[in-house]
Specification:
Keywords: Adaptive immunity, Disulfide bond, Glycoprotein, Immunity, Immunoglobulin domain, Membrane, MHC II, Signal, Transmembrane, Transmembrane helix. By secondary structure, this protein is an alpha+beta fold. It has three domains: 85 residues, Roll (Class II Histocompatibility Antigen, M Beta Chain, Chain B, domain 1); 90 residues, Immunoglobulins (Immunoglobulin-like), CATH 2.60.40.10; 35 residues. The protein contains two helices and 14 strands, in the order ββββββαββββββββα. The chain has a six-stranded antiparallel beta sheet. A four-stranded antiparallel beta sheet has the order 7-8-12-11, with no helix packed on it. β11 and β12 form a beta hairpin. The chain is globular. 20% of the residues are buried.
Length: 230
């Protein structure tokens, strides 16, 4: 557990040789977060604004815990209760400045929809603001929820995403505000032309068909020679 004046993080970990299941609960002055990870990958988190559990899409429906949201509300309540008891009893951990990496989910092809990912890592405390800009103008993201995931060293990481349609020359920026630190990472879009990409594929298909034709022709030629010899 880590404790500071306004934040309390509780992490229950089941650790074996084959897996590491972590249930992290953090609470702040007026909000909180509950997130469950498996070997560092998120299984689900509680969205207290929408009053629901948001499951990772790869988790089968048969594994969804029916009362997961009610349990999340309970542990958040307990977290705030412990915060009142432990408040001021421990010194705050050293602030860790976040590290930023911006990359695209798929290969960037002009006029094709894609996703930019801003990976924010190794920061503490888990109180942070992120925003995206396109050519210097702020843009809104679809999901404003920030899922802070605990690292083994006690710091946190999170992913912020932005859907975009690639256009060569566009400049996207991910800005992070943490404590008294502001960090900006810019990414210039260098998109491949869709026509050229299709031409490359078409050329590859033609070469494959050509080599296949040569192989078939050689096979029948050898068979014909054997037949004539017989």
């Amino acid at each position: 557990t880590n404790c500071c004046v306004n934040i309390l993080i509780l992490c229950l970990t089941i650790h074996t040789k084959l897996m590491r299941l972590c249930h992290t609960t953090s609470c702040f002055k007026s909000s909180g977060q509950v997130i469950v990870t498996f070997d560092g990958d998120e299984l689900y988190h509680a969205d207290f604004k929408k009053e629901e559990i948001v499951w990772e899409s790869r988790v089968p429906t048969s594994f969804h815990f029916v009362h997961a949201y009610q349990y999340a509300v309970y542990v958040r309540h307990m977290c705030k209760h412990f915060l009142k008891i432990w408040k001021g009893k421990k010194s705050a951990p050293t602030t860790a400045v976040p590290e930023l990496i911006v990359h695209s989910r798929n290969d960037v092809i002009e006029q094709i929809e894609n996703t930019l990912i801003c990976f924010i890592n190794h920061f503490f405390p888990p109180v942070i603001k992120t925003k995206w800009t396109k050519n210097g103008i702020e843009v809104e993201t679809e999901d404003s929820f920030q899922a802070f995931i605990l690292n083994p060293d006690g710091t946190f990481h999170l992913f912020s995403t932005l859907s975009f349609i690639a256009k060569d020359g566009d400049i996207y920026g991910c800005t992070v505000e943490h404590e008294f630190h502001v960090q900006i990472v810019l990414s210039t879009i260098k998109a491949e032309d869709t026509y050229n990409n299709h031409s490359f594929v078409y050329c590859g298909i033609c070469l494959t068909v050509g080599f296949l034709g040569i192989a078939v022709g050689t096979f029948f030629a050898v068979k014909g020679n054997k037949y004539q010899t017989s």
